[in-house]
Amino acid sequence: MQNNEALKNALPGCQKFEEVEENVYDSELGINIGPVKGVFTAKVSQVDIKEMDSYRLLVEGQGKPGKFNGDAAMELVEDGDDTTLQCSADVEVTGVLAAAGQRVMNGVAKVIMGQFFKDIEKEAKKIASL
Amino acid sequence: MTKMVGSSVKRKEDARLLTGNGNFADDITLPGMLHASVVRSSSAHAKIKSIKVEEALNHPGVVAVYTGKDLEGKIGPIPTSWYVPGCNLKEPPQYPLAIDHVRYVGDGVALVIAEDRYTVKDAAELIEVEYEDLPAVVNQKEAMEEGAPLLHEDIENNIALNWKAGEIPEGIMENAEVVVKESFYVQRVFPSPLETRAAIGQYNPGSGELTLWCSSQNPHIHRMVLSEVLGISEAKFQVIAPDMGGGFGGKIGVYPDEALIGYAARDLERPVKWIEERSEHYVAANAGRDEYIDVELAGKKDGTLEAIRVKNTANLGAYLSTMGAGVSTIDFGMMVTGSYDIPYAESETFGVYTNTTPTDAYRGAGKPESTYQIERIIDLFAREIKMDPVELRRKNFIKKEAFPYQNAHGLVYDSGDYEKPLNKALEAINYEELRREQEKKRKEGKLIGIGFSTYVEMCGFGPSEVVGAVGFQGGTWENSTVRVHPSGKVTVFCGTSPHGQGHDTTFSQVVADKLGIPIEDIEFVFSDTKSVSMGWGTYGSRSTAVGGAAVSFASDRVVEKAKKIAAHELEVSENDIEFENGKFQVKGVPGKERTFQDIAHSANMAWNLPEGMEPSLEAQYFFKPENFVFPFGTHVAVVEIDKDTGEIDLQRYVSVDDVGTVINPLTAEGQVHGGIAQGVGQALWEGAVYNKNGQLVSGTLMDYTLPKARFFPHIESDFTETPSPVNPLGAKGVGEVGTTASIACAMNAVVDALSVYGITDLEMPLTPEKIWKTVQEKEGNQ
Amino acid sequence: MTVEKKRVSVTANGQACSAEVEPRKLLVHYLRDDLGLTGTHVGCDTSQCGACSVMVDGDVVKSCTMLAVQADHSEITTVEGLGTAAELHPMQQSFWEEHGLQCGYCTPGVMIAAIGLLKENPNPTEEEIREGLEGVICRCTGYQFIVSAVQKAATRIQETGVNLNSQRLVGEGTQND
Prior knowledge:
The complex is a heterotrimer of chains A (130), B (782) and C (177). The mean pLDDT of chain A is 76. Chain A contains 3 helices and 6 strands. The radius of gyration of chain A is 15 Å and the shape is globular. A 6-stranded antiparallel β-sheet of chain A has the order 1-2-3-4-5-6. Chain A starts with a helix and ends with a helix. The longest helix of chain A has 28 residues, at 101-128. Chain A is α+β, with helices and mostly antiparallel strands and 130 residues long. Helices cover 30% and strands 53% of the residues of chain A. Chain B folds into 3 domains: 14-134 and 194-246 and 251-284, Aldehyde oxidase/xanthine dehydrogenase, a/b hammerhead (Aldehyde Oxidoreductase, domain 3), CATH 3.90.1170; 288-461 and 627-781, Aldehyde oxidase/xanthine dehydrogenase, molybdopterin binding domain (Aldehyde Oxidoreductase, domain 4); 478-623, 2-Layer Sandwich (Aldehyde Oxidoreductase, domain 4), CATH 3.30.365. Chain B is built from 21 helices and 28 strands. In chain B, α10 (324-333) runs parallel beside α11 (367-384) and α13 (419-429) packs across α14 (431-443). The longest helix of chain B has 28 residues, at 543-570. Chain C is of the alpha+beta class and 177 residues long. Chain C has 2 domains: 6-81, Roll (Ubiquitin-like (UB roll)); 90-160, Orthogonal Bundle (DNA polymerase, domain 1). Helix content of chain C is 31%, strand content 14%. Chain C contains 5 helices and 5 strands; from the N terminus they run ββαβββαααα. Chain C has helices spanning 27-34, 90-97, 107-120, 126-132, 144-160, and strands at residues 6-12, 15-21, 53-56, 59-62, 75-77. Chain C has a 5-stranded mixed β-sheet, with helices on both faces. In chain C, α2 crosses α5 (144-160). Chains in contact: A-B, B-C. Chains B and C meet through α1, α4 and α19 of B and α1, α2, α3, α4 and α5 of C.
């Protein structure tokens, strides 16, 4: 979950993911879901890192449709044999993203998050099978 | 011949609208026409660091891209039209496109012009604006606080104006037996005409003439203001308002976008069309209301009201709109005593800039808010002294004999008989029985509420001297020309600008009666600055009272001249002629007559006119009213609240309005219904919501609740008629009364239902969620 | 944009029409801009207002939610296909008599929606009409006179036996079925 390559592969539409300083990345996300479409450049930072346990992911993105600021708390919780990834996120958006209303944005956020978790699972399995 | 005034004539304008033959802005297509799109700020407050336009410019089909910097020095800022005096008004410049600083989501930053409507949207998405965000403030009370983000560097505490009127002598409030205080919030709402804004510019490089079709309620004001902004002579600038899908105040304003379209058409020497999208409309078109109102009402235990003190803290948005300064001051503040004889009043208003879309007039403009505070607080006063709210109102009504009545702020109400509509409404709902029923149901645990609004409003703008004295940049008189063709058919011109009200019909009724000709022989021309003499448009319920009066006077002038011609032809003295049913008849000599059509022909041929008389038959009249007009009435709402769902069932709505002489009962009733729908809409469902960062989160019709058919019961509406002495028709205004009355009325009904819990106020709109939470909380506490 | 255009052919108000359009073009823009049927209006961008309602193969459709290419080979009725000023359709006549319109912008869509309603329920109550107009928004009238217009139209249509399923709705009785 803190593996950069894994993160890049799991971020939907991620076209670029480069570390610019420790735990800070420049990325480009191509998003195309319904009315929300466009390339967002984003600064992604990992903060409050507790190795193998939890961290917060801060995303400051900007694209033609507007801006977004995300703050996601990621936590791995042991649950018997399984490990559950818990995530709670706050996202602030501007422009079309905000005006289009929560209905659309919630949908978009769910799709992106859903995809992210599916992919991270895939990445996790990939790493585990190495 | 039956009299036309007073009868429910079917509308003349409907045939084209019903068959798809209307001519709305987007129906207009011109050869070589381009399409425009405005790129708008996605940030509520930011410095513009850069705007990248290359990609858009290189997009196939794109003709031009303009930014604020490109237009600097070429096109002036858009001025307000209401410089309210004595309030230290501060007007920051509003450039058609932001130059380096955006102040609300929706602020224009670039204009893209392309060959078709799809391409221009594609290209607009390719413009990349880099913003450096600044802290934003959306609430006017927060914006006034020390340390709040400043929108305009030189405007301290974001305070645009501080206006005061009246003074309550010392001791009155302090020594009053009863003082009831409450703070209300009349939330921000959207006028929401179903047709958004639109503009089409066409420039003739040969003649230097510019034509702007513009969805405007006042094309002459648009011409006056934009000719200055664009630096073009009014004589070379024609503004036409085509058919319009409503306005409700939202299309009074002269907007940056309209200036941009005029500019681009001239610059590119090609027609340019701009049609606003709905979600764009909600961030870019002026909103209404958004006022915090603190009220103190003082009086005696017996219900005698003595003084009222009102403070309004109004959100003006990021810039000063066309009527922005006047709504919360003059329109609101002068009427705070309502329909009651309250000897002392004090009004104070703070107008505040915030990082939101500007606010301007919305149906009623200040008067619904003023009515809201007085009609709400009088209910609370009644509750405080345990008096029936109807009895308290009746006790304090301005008496019929007192008219013309001067209110505490000096306004003179023209005429009134407030008991008349009240009694009619009480009868319609069977008031005493209804209260007994309410008592009974309350005992069964049901939440039933009865709400009243016995309003009066000021409209019919207006007497020029007064309007000038309060700083409005317009004359607000009105003109009409009655042109009689050789056949006796008539074209009438008038400077008001209808957009759904049906003035073609109602004004034709006036002319038909005056000239004694069939209504089918009359055609009206409005809304075109090239055809119609200077006029002031349609807003403030002024059209019939001022424009209709001008039509009436101009018709009189035609008859006056025609009578002279008839006397000449019939070889009698003018005094021997009487004019009735379209015939000039020699008194006492049956058959010795001329028809109106005969005289129309004679006048236009001019073969045999009285000596020295000018040919043709045409008259113009410029009518300057001496006062505003003051319609009034009583509205009653009955609601039942479902405790389990929080839903409000609006069971009955009764309106009895007195708008003076009713020209056409059918269209007048239509105006009342529409007004009520918008007022009840504000109370129960509508509300514009910004988040703390200044992002509008109610920016589409998915998120902003416009009422639907099933939201309403069958409205029971009626009229009483107390003619106004201000104009020859005796007409007052009918466009805004429904809205002015109904916000308070619906709210009073709900608060009455919830009074069993001791509730005195709730914030509008009264969504089921809000009501449910309140009920649950109160039930839990009991 | 170098997207290949598609030919879309429809029968609009009884007349065969055809135009080449981008695949993304909305039906409402095809009707207005390509066929010149400007009686149908656009009031929003999220399919709430219903001003753009037209009949496609007999069903009421918000023409801003449908692509022109999806309507290929269909039969479309717009307000222009109802009646003429000289010979109004019973729905138009009723809207006129009952003052069911003010600015007239929503009216074409509302009348089409109301015809759709009467096809389903020829004799609706006031409440059923109010429910049945859920898909349209009018900002001017407060709906009351729209409701009375639809009531009157229902009666009139039953009395005159106008066939609401015919392509051009006036003066053709059942012959176009």
